[in-house]
Design brief:
With 189 residues, the chain is mainly beta. Helices cover 8% and strands 63% of the residues.
């Protein structure tokens, strides 16, 4: 699936959940909300004396308990619509892989400037790498540490660009890399 249809599908799902009971918003009070962000991944896999970089788009959905521009925490899951690709293959992995994950994330604003501010995002995940290589599917644990800046572009819509470090272990492979994300958040004021 190309970039534009993936973004449209991602934000269509977000708008669907936004209109549901999960995302009723009262400014300055904590509520459960559905959030989504689109991510470009650059992940370096190492193992068995080899290394390869996998790249590609993915997405993350969050079901958060959130107080806007203060904190949020909850369930994170993703990579439902995307694969990562490498120019060559590692022994036991295919050229295209899918990384599915589910875990816990929190987002804490360490500099709240009223309608915009800087935040940190740590997370811990169980993941599964699905591939057609000889090793088959590989399970593991991964971590995320990110920083970003969220700002209102209208009274009810904000953008949240973010840079994160992601690392994990999967069978004989370890991997780490950078992710560049963009979240679009909808608020009812």
């Amino acid at each position: 699936m190309t970039f534009l249809p993936r973004v449209i599908l991602c934000y269509t799902l977000l708008l669907f959940f936004h209109s549901s009971a999960f995302s009723s918003i009262e400014p300055q009070s904590g509520k459960f909300r559905m959030r989504a962000r689109e991510t470009y991944n650059w992940l370096k896999f190492e193992g068995q004396g080899e290394e390869e970089v996998y790249r590609g788009l993915s997405n993350t959905f969050n079901l958060f308990y959130e107080k806007p521009f203060n904190y949020s925490y909850g369930l994170a899951f993703g990579s439902l619509l995307s694969s990562l690709s490498a120019s060559t293959t590692l022994t036991g992995l295919s050229k295209d892989i899918f990384i599915y994950f589910i875990g816990f994330e929190t987002k804490v604003f360490f500099l709240n400037l009223g309608g915009h501010g800087f935040f940190a995002r740590p997370g811990v995940f169980y993941h599964q790498i699905q591939n057609e290589g000889a090793r088959g599917n590989l399970d593991g644990v991964s971590l995320l540490t990110g920083v970003g800046y969220e700002f209102l572009i209208t009274k009810s819509v904000s953008l949240a660009p973010e840079l994160s470090l992601r690392s994990g272990e999967s069978g004989p492979f370890s991997w780490q890399g950078l992710t560049f994300s963009l979240g679009v958040h909808f608020y009812q004021l």
